[in-house]
Write a structure and sequence with these properties.
- By secondary structure, the chain is α+β, with helices and mostly antiparallel strands.
- The chain has four helices and three strands.
- It starts with 5 loop residues before the first helix and ends with a strand.
Length: about 100
């Protein structure tokens, strides 16, 4: 009989058959204000997207960017508007295998 530690009990890991890191799920096109150029890339997870581009997005922000939901398109809130902060980003959901 082996003794298991709490770490082994609590660690669930990836589910069997998980393909999260085998396919691209996000395609992003954004304008980098610092260098004045467009950036484009494909990412497997939102976490990887945040790490590579230096962003701080969560699932709610990604959905709002994709659908422009509550985006304050008339810019009533000026520099605090959603579009003032994220209007230069376009995110698409894709399902493409990594080659």
């Amino acid at each position: 009989m082996s003794i298991s530690t709490n770490k082994e009990k609590n660690y669930k890991g990836k589910i069997k058959g998980c393909e999260n890191n085998k396919k691209f799920h996000w395609h992003i096109v954004m304008f980098d204000k610092e260098i004045g150029q467009m950036k484009e890339g494909k990412y497997t997870t939102i976490k990887k997207l945040n790490e590579d581009l230096g962003l701080n997005l969560n699932g709610d922000y990604v959905r709002r960017i994709m659908t422009r939901y509550r985006a304050d398109e008339k810019m009533r809130n000026k520099e605090n508007s959603f579009l003032a902060r994220w209007g230069h980003i376009k995110i698409n959901k894709i399902n493409e295998p990594i080659i």
